[in-house]
Design brief:
Helix content: 55-70%
Mean pLDDT: 80
Structural class: mainly alpha
Largest sheet: 2 strands, parallel
Number of helices: 8
Order of helices and strands: HEHEHHHHHH
Strand order of the largest sheet: 1-2
CATH topology of the largest domain: Arc Repressor Mutant, subunit A
CATH superfamily of the largest domain: Winged helix-like DNA-binding domain superfamily/Winged helix DNA-binding domain
Oligomer: single chain
Length: 131
């Protein structure tokens, strides 16, 4: 919908697997849908070449956000998404509550998420937990 590489990158980082411009929708919408049906990403527009280069590894099995997170941050995101409080996560991982809060805040900052609901949504989309 927007002719902005930054917005396209943000969309893919948030879990989108297709991106096309509003001006291309009439010509490419069916191609995008067909691509998604067979679990392939689809991107179009003047910056599609850049997206292909940036996301080729991530879109072939690795989530972009997961690459940004350390293993500890991913574990904490998973536990929070499963419904554990910071205190519960701390007990499970034998960490101080402050350390848990620091890792959780770092993960949320890296993912540009500002709520627990957003963190849960990310974890489900990234298959860290099952819905």
């Amino acid at each position: 919908m927007h002719d902005s590489e930054v917005l396209a990158l943000q969309a893919f980082r948030a879990g989108a697997r297709a991106f096309l411009l509003k001006s291309d929708a009439n010509k490419m919408l069916m191609a995008a849908v067909e691509s998604l049906i067979v679990h392939k990403p689809f991107y179009a527009g003047p910056f599609s070449h850049e997206l292909r280069g940036i996301f080729s590894n991530e879109l072939n099995g690795m989530s972009t956000g997961n690459q940004l997170l350390s293993p500890r941050e991913m574990t904490i995101v998973k536990l929070v998404a499963e419904g554990h409080s910071n205190k519960g996560v701390s007990a499970i991982l034998n960490l101080s509550i402050k350390t848990t809060e620091t890792h959780r805040a770092a993960a949320m900052r890296k993912l540009n998420i500002n709520s627990t609901a957003g963190l849960v949504r990310y974890a489900v989309r990234s298959k860290l937990v099952e819905a």
